[in-house]
Amino acid sequence: MTDIDIFGRKVFFVAQNSKVIPASFAEDFLSHGFETYFIQETAPAPLKQRIARIAEQYPESLLLIYVDSDDTQIQQHTLLPDMLQAAGSSVRAGLLYRINGTADQEQKVSALAAGRMLVCGCTGLGDNPKVNFEVLCRVLDKGGAGGRRTMVRAVCDDSSAASFALNGKNFNEHIIDVNTEFFSCDVKAGLDSLPIYGQLHDVKLSINGLFIKTDAVLIMKRASKGKNLFIFMFTQPDGSPHLSKETHAALNKKIYAIVTAQASAALQ
């Protein structure tokens, strides 16, 4: 099983219309396990170069181009062949369009690919953002964007840590990575007394500058690459799973900021 099978594929939307595909979709997609990015560029050369860079750095990604963009040149479809050529053969491409009610619209949009096989096909979107989101989730799932994971994991910086008390002793352990349900720590020593499914209360987490407080349950211990990993699940004080709604939203926003920063080289 490859990393792509497990973690899925990055998704790049090109020239989306904010009314049809709002920018807020990015964080919503993240909650569904899809790592997505929006690319806006009006100048033809920079856009082509950016897509070529994406293809080089993320050759197994998804590229979804909105052909009814507000940009005049993209509306005239003069850039599509160049963009698809820049994407190369390994990127899974697809075209998105705004439904206008004509019977042969999908056929005409498909023809814009000029012979390029569109693994992600041609997908029509309407005026209802909620329906569009559901439609796009199906496109991303079919294109392999989600893999086997159900949420996106962010690798934390060196300052990220979990602080808590156990048996009268204070601990401050480095957080390796986090998603909206779990986090893992590199534990140095002294936590052997915490059993699997043992609960910690009032855990203070610093995650790339975001500070949250929660309870957590230890669900796994394992050694990996010289590190002693303890994997925790976020819980409520009564032991029920998940973060509070407000904390979940704040963490999801931070995770999106982290993964976006990690892909910033391709988005510049």
Give the helices and strands, then pairings.
Layout: H1 3-7, E1 11-14, H2 25-31, E2 36-39, H3 44-57, E3 62-66, H4 72-75, H5 80-87, E4 92-98, H6 105-111, E5 122-125, H7 129-142, E6 154-155, E7 161-166, E8 169-178, E9 182-186, E10 199-207, E11 210-224, E12 227-235, H8 245-262, H9 264-267
What does this 3D model show about the protein?
It is a single chain. By secondary structure, this protein is an alpha/beta fold. Helices cover 30% and strands 30% of the residues. The protein has nine helices and twelve strands. It has helices at 3-7, 25-31, 44-57, 72-75, 80-87, 105-111, 129-142, 245-262, 264-267, and strands at residues 11-14, 36-39, 62-66, 92-98, 122-125, 154-155, 161-166, 169-178, 182-186, 199-207, 210-224, 227-235. The longest helix has 18 residues, at 245-262. The relative contact order is 0.13.
Beta content comes to 25-35%
Strand arrangement, largest sheet?
7-8-9-12-11-10
Low-confidence stretches: none
Radius of gyration, rounded? 21 Å
Q: Give the N-to-C terminal Cα separation.
A: 32 Å
Main structural class: alpha/beta
Task: Note the main sheet.
Answer: 6 strands, antiparallel, barrel
Which bin fits the share of residues in helices?
25-40%
Total DSSP E strands? 12
What is the typical, i.e. mean, pLDDT? 85
Shape: elongated
Give descriptors for this structure.
elongated, 30% strand, 6-stranded antiparallel β-barrel, alpha/beta, 5-stranded parallel β-sheet
